Amino acid sequence: MKVKLKGNSRLMKEIIFFTIMMIVPTVQYLIFGFGIKINLITLAFQTFNVDTNQMEWNLLGNFEKFFAQYNESLELQNSIRNSLSLPIWTIFLSIFIGVFFSLYIYKKQFGSRAFKVLLFMPSIVSAIVMTRVFSMFVDRAYPDFLRLTFGVEAPLGLLANKDTRWATLIFYSLWSGFGSSILLYVGAMSSISESLSEAAKLDGCNMLQESIFITIPLIYQTILVYITTGIAAIFVNQLNLYSFYQHTASASVSTMGYWIYIQTLSAGGQTQNYAYLSAVGLLLSCITVPTTLIIKWFLNKVGPKTE
Amino acid sequence: MKKERLNKPNVVFVIIGVVIAVYCLSLIFALSWAFLTSFKSRGDYVSNPVGFPKSFLFENYLVGFENFYVDVGTGLAKSRVSLLQMIPNTLLYAIGCSFFLTATNCIVAYCCCKFSKFKITKVYVTLVYVEMALPIVGGQAAELQLIMRLGIYDTMFGMWIMKMYFAGVYFLVFLAMFSSIPKDFADAGYIDGASEFTVLFKLMLPMVSGTFGTVMLIYFISYWNDYQTPLLYMPSLPTLAYGLYRYSFSFRTQITSVPMKMVGCMILFLPIFVVFICFQKVLIGNITMGGLKE
Questions:
Q1: Which residues between 2 and 61 in chain B have a beta carbon less than 8 angstroms from any beta carbon of chain A?
Q2: What is the CB neighbour count within 10 angstroms for residue B289?
Q3: Chain A residues with CB-CB distance to B265 below 8 A
Q4: pTM of the prediction?
């Protein structure tokens, strides 16, 4: 009986401790995690009635407005098209290059220690600094250099020139986008047992074969995390457009992440504007959530098995 | 244990090494160009856009500091926030948000690990995976409307509350760390009469203090560099990054030239670069998430 009472007392202390430590994060999540999602859903189905000067339930009003705007707005059409095409560059190419850079560092090849530090650098530099430095160089210094050195008349900067603008933005996204992902790949590779590497060498594998047939399959889940989080964020990715152009990015390079951010900034605290944006967000989430789940399921199914 | 290097260079790895070297050189070139350009006069830059400055004009930084400000508010309520006033905003924002975010991740991970017998902890862990994999698009508008209703819009305290969020990737880092600590340490504490609070704050947290510091440093750098969140959520408390954004797009004659724009960039970049150089071993070496592998 005494033991049981002591056990109950211990359990009670644990419950009290757990409750005290978890109450703030739980309430915070209920308001700012769960609550925002509920707010987004309820706002999406409300519109502003100019006659009554109040918000009213309207199941399809915001969605009809969005589709009408989509039909008329080249910027919106380009934003969706650009957002859907981004994963090829910003996810798959970035992961492909990142994994091979990480393999080089993991295998402690020449200069890998210095490269590890330098590859992490873009993560610590502010996006506004990187974009300003990059844009000043490609849009001001580079054309000035061409004019002075090669006598080119009125050269356009790479971001100012509509023919090179999109490619330059994609290049910048790749150029500045490495960093902490490489560290995480290297961290995952470092946890692979050395005995596997030694067994591979005994079987006559060279470094490249070992990397492709052993290392990459064993970090496949880490790669999958980056792919699925990247897919989940396709309509959130701004491609740094606000840092490059503020509100004035050309319609040809706009993305949905940029379009939503600009609209949110200019909403002016008006609930009807927030309601419309919430509806757009909900519509896009209905696309990204199942897409992400399907892609994750598919990649898990076709991906390398480690057995 | 150090891994052995293979003696024979592999051609593919040589090519990768060359590509990495070119990439790293491009990073060094870009930041060096920005640093050197910040010391040029307008005329020096026009005649020599990519070379070394003819003379180092340190007074560019004085002009940059004087013009690094943000006008907040409208009409009669308009006021000017100088660079010196942005520094405490930046420190409060970066330190406060990084501390609360890291502490929340850490405490929730500890509770989920220690009390895994409580079924509710599985809900928290599942929520983390769900939130990481399925972010909601366009939630900013709903979030803004909510914080305006709660009366915490445009406040530093409101930003801290918003950052007490446990569903981040570093929750998994802390969960792995606490899972790897043997239960014997806590049991020894209980035998000595320690309470749950004593075990957490005097035994467990010191054991993960290295990771706590590193995660907080990573978040600190991220918040130091972030300008879009202060722009949207606390426009009258500008941080240095927000100030640089305004400075970069300003048409004031004193700061329209490329050298002066680079001065603004260096004002934000150099302090964080010094922090990185001092702590790069901690930053790069201490995160041992281990990745996700079968």
A1: 2-3, 5-6, 9-10, 12-13, 16-17, 19-21, 23-24, 26-28, 30-31, 33-34, 37, 46-47, 49-50
A2: 18
A3: 128-129, 132-133
A4: 0.85
